Amino acid sequence: MSMNKTPMSERVHIGFFGKRNAGKSSVMNAVTGQDLAVVSEVKGTTTDPVYKSMELLPLGPVVMMDTPGIDDEGELGGLRVRKSYQVLNKTDAAVLVIDGTVGVSAEDEALIGRIQRKDIPFLVAVNKTELTDPSVTEEVTKALSLREGQILAVSAATGEGINDLKEQIAAIARAEEPEKYLVRDLICPSDIAVLVVPIDSAAPKGRLILPQQQTIRDVLEAGGISVVVKETELKAALSKLAEKPKIVITDSQAFAEVSADTPEDILLTSFSILMARYKGNLEQAVRGVTALETLEDGDAILISEGCTHHRQCDDIGTVKIPGWIREYTGKEVKIETTSGTEFPDDLAKYKLIIHCGGCMLNEREMKYRLSCAADQGMPMTNYGILIAYVKGILKRSVEVFPEISRLL
User: Which of 30, 266, 376, 384 is positioned for an S-S bond with 156, CB 3.0–4.6 A?
Assistant: First the structure.
């Protein structure tokens, strides 16, 4: 990923939903002014969700998401419908496209119900106005009886109503939220932050991973000074600094070595812990990790990652963390893994969920996964918290957050 681009996880996600041939792809193309999705008269042309990062004025950086029809049929069609519903978990603003020549269906009403239960801002676009009369929109309005959400008449073919739709999408997607920081609120201007970045076989060649990039930017925003070193150079770097750094931030895999080389009077944490606070799940992760103490032989653990990548022979999710768990607990547990958009709805069979930092997931999808665990009473932690816990340095690594430290 280029450091000049807004990460996908930080973009507003706008999803277009509806039945086959309602014109979802055509409406999305009209809104963006680009041919982002394939358009055809054949039902079911969109067989998988389509994601496109772009700039959409007046909103800014967005991800436009086209989805398969919610009325698809057969075994394969059912899987496509499931994929469409999964996209809702990451949708910040939804557009339900209804074919004006057909009217409202049971599938449309069911989808609106799901959207409302997930508290997603949404609009209804009644498409194909060039083939209908204005009374159709009134009929749709009466049929839906919306408690919230607006209904707009549009035509992807002629452009009618598209500008209004674009403005309304921007309006509902601009929810004001408190500004969040990774590290900016923890340091003062001219403070030194030492970032420990191991370079190993799994590190992307020629670039830093996203949490490291974001942390460097946040230090700069605070007027601080970033010093970036490998774990093997940390001790030398600390000895050469004329002024003691305010904080050392490390990749979780190097936690033990970095803790040993960092004096006790310097704050220590990890990129993963900072990301957990940023995503809103730090307290849940700290509470959840104690489930390690209750594990028994044969218990199942889910290790979930938000991105997909080529597995290395010493992969952290499938090799290192399972090994550390077995070493710490002395138990022979069962490990299951998921990656990318896959996350089970039913978590009942697991005793613990261990999630990556979630840097590639937007806030809504991360909150969905957290709420799935919380609603089912399932303890959930993340990579950095677990590693610090089994290495015996969790309390030190969260001392930078006194309200969290008091939980331990």
Answer: 30
